[in-house]
Amino acid sequence: MLDILLLVLILFLVVILWVMIYDSSRFVVVRHEIRDRRIGGHYRVVFLSDLHNKQFGKKNARLLKAIEDTDPDAVLVGGDMINGKPGEKLEGMVDLLRSLKEKYPVYYANGNHEHRLKLYPGTYGDAAERYEKALSELGIEPLLNCHVQLPGVNLAIYGSEIDKYYYKRFSVPDMRPDYLAGLLGHPRQEVYTILLAHNPDYFPRYAQWGADLVLSGHVHGGIIRIPFWGRGLLSPNVRLFPKYDGGVYQEGSSTMILSRGLGIHTIPFRLFNPGELIVIDFAEQ
């Protein structure tokens, strides 16, 4: 009997290990549709978040092919495409962004890892300066608490970069009701507003500010998703079963699409939780 139980345990662990390796090296394409009377015509975007310098094939060939197959009008980036750690190489991400920029407009908002490089030059050297210069040479100007208006479709894209205070571990610090307006100003109600906001914990504040659609990441789907229950286990802020772990959420008239991200960081695996490439079609209602 003990031999049978031991064999079952070994088989179970082998299956878990296989799924872990498989999920950590793949992504799925997830599609959404947004309809609103203010949107003119049709506009398709791909949303990338939390790649963390991961490579899907040589020079990210698999990822680039998947993006090309969706035929987007633009690429939106939600941050943490690189890793904020000493000595991290930037060339792979710059190559990916160069390939994207050659075909599509790219709208880039920082995550906490890009922000970290800027805050601590004593730790990360000139990495932030080099990365910003490389993006500028590609014609990509990050949306640092500013916005762009897309011509013809009545869409505005805002990029927020909140203070590192809001990325504390173990807790979700309060955010003042007027904090976002101080960073971003106020959106125009007659324009459909997309907010690239890396940290999903503050979705109620984003909705209160006036975002029609929030695109977020950061949580990596909870690292491990519990089978059948569908909940993520752990957030990067070291909180069990985070409220926002991936998928679509609603707060009043505001919607949040929370990507499970593409890469891995700190905890170097994903389980029952493949990466996500998000595709969103905007159309007039």
Characterise the protein shown here:
The chain is an alpha/beta fold and 285 residues long. The protein has eight helices and eleven strands. The strands form two sheets. Strands 5-6-7-8-10-9 form a six-stranded mixed β-sheet. The protein has a five-stranded mixed β-sheet with strand order 1-11-2-3-4, covered by helices on one side. It is globular and about 70 Å long. The protein starts with a helix and ends with a strand. 42% of the residues are buried.
Strand fraction equals: 15-25%
By DSSP, the count of extended strands is 11
Q: Shape, please?
A: globular
Q: Please bin the fraction of helical residues.
A: 25-40%
Name the strands of the widest sheet in spatial order.
Answer: 5-6-7-8-10-9
Global structural class: alpha/beta
Distance between the termini: 63 Å
- The Rg value, from CA coordinates, equals 19 Å
- Can you write the helix and strand succession as a string? HEEHEHEHHHEEHEHEEEE
Main β sheet profile:
6 strands, mixed
Mean pLDDT: 95
Tell me the number of helical segments per DSSP (H or I, 4 or more residues long).
8
Sequence stretches where pLDDT stays below 50 over 5 or more residues? none
